[in-house]
Design goal:
118 residues, mainly beta, Jelly Rolls, five-stranded antiparallel beta sheet, four-stranded antiparallel beta sheet, globular
């Protein structure tokens, strides 16, 4: 897991611009709204990179590398950009109502999804 910085930010009288990511090949983009105290994720991907951009709210994130078993925890809030690597089990618990964007490097194939539970 990597927390990445925006590649660009600017602000003027019109408002603000945040450049979320400008590299890689992304195939699927999703918008999520999550109620307080809900769990999302709790899975890993073998072949897919997954990027999250938190628009609103607070989320407790637990990342466990399924290969070396190392675990990281953090609380993420508005503006956090998080890149999940393959084989990282990711679990999200919403501490407040949340709005976020999810971007995947591969489309989810509903017949054979790259979603794996432990």
């Amino acid at each position: 897991m990597k927390i990445i910085k925006p590649y660009k930010t600017s602000e003027d009288t019109r408002g603000a611009l945040t450049g979320i990511i400008n590299e890689g090949i992304w195939k699927e983009i999703n918008y999520l709204e999550t109620a307080k105290n809900q769990i999302r994720g709790n899975h890993y991907h073998r072949n897919t990179l997954e990027l999250f951009y938190i628009l609103e709210g607070k989320i407790e994130i637990t990342i466990k590398n399924t290969k070396d078993k190392k675990t990281k925890k953090l609380i993420a809030g508005r503006g956090t950009i998080l890149l999940i690597e393959p084989f990282e089990l990711h679990t999200f618990i919403s501490k407040t109502k949340c709005k976020w964007i999810n971007i995947l490097s591969k489309k989810i194939n509903n017949r054979n999804p790259d979603i794996h539970k432990i």
